[in-house]
Amino acid sequence: xERVLCLLMGYVFGLFQTGYLYSRSKHMDIRxxxxxxxxxxxxxxxxxxxxxxxxxxxxxxxxIAACLITRVLFRSQPELLYVxxxxxxxxxxxxxxxxxxxxxxxxxxxxxxxxxxxSTDWRVMLVCLVVFVAAVAITRYVSLGSIxxxxxxxxxxxxxxxxxxxxxxxxxxxxxxxxxxLISAMGIxxxxxxxxxxxxxxxxxxxxxxx
Length: 211
Prior knowledge:
10 helices, mainly alpha, single chain
């Protein structure tokens, strides 16, 4: 029941679609512009840097808020706390990517995943940040940086989980790894069209404003 509670709570938080709500406040629907995605990258391209930052912070913030509640609710179960955090995080990403009231058409979950990184381990977050900034600075492909972040997230969770840094009981480590793998795979899969464009050399670069 605790796992179901975390998933459901996360999904509810994920339904707060910052990009959609912000665009509606500007009398437009971001889903009708650019890539049609309601995430921060499309908002950045279509509406500018300020809008992109606001949406990124909103999407990361809803994840952080959900994880904070999880920490409070399950502070008495340290051996399972990080497992519950990943259930909550997965729920937020599902709500963000597949909001029922928007026809299950949401974002790609990268900003929300950044919030999960901030809520779990600062070392993994720092590595992912360096990898993302370096990848985007060199290639100007936000999608490539996002994909690499999801790979680093999984590696980091497995590495520090195996070291015992999260205090997870041995009986629950496999479950923790599976959850981390699902979150990573979801982030990569949501970029499947970007991957095709990267391979064909037609992917949009940062700074190329989309109409």
